[in-house]
Amino acid sequence: xxxxxxxxxxxxxxxxxxxxxxxxxxxxxxxxxxxxxxxxxxxxxxxxxxxxxxxxxxxxxxxxxxxxxxxxxxxxxxxxxxxxxxxxxxxxxxxxxxxxxxxxxxxxxxxxxxxxxxxxxxxxxxxxxxxxx
Length: 133
Prior knowledge:
single chain, mainly alpha, 61% helix, globular
């Protein structure tokens, strides 16, 4: 059963999408607002991680990983940059791989997608592995 506003939108030619559960799909403005909110929240979490990184308790690295994962989940270009950065810095990559199982759902999935490709050479150690002539 459609409410009066939904019937008016349908008459005016607007599409009303329904999920399998019967709920209406999010509008573009709600999606944009959710992305903006996620990005702002992730920047705040990352900043808190940078501030707490030098403390003896290693909570800073965890906060930075959560912040980066949230940012990368809304930005494909950041996901690619993070993948390249992780391939160039194997020590940081190992730290992120240790934290990854402790995360949950979306964060764990984003960090998993940002892993460097296994077959790609690590750029940070390219000179060490080159044959001498």
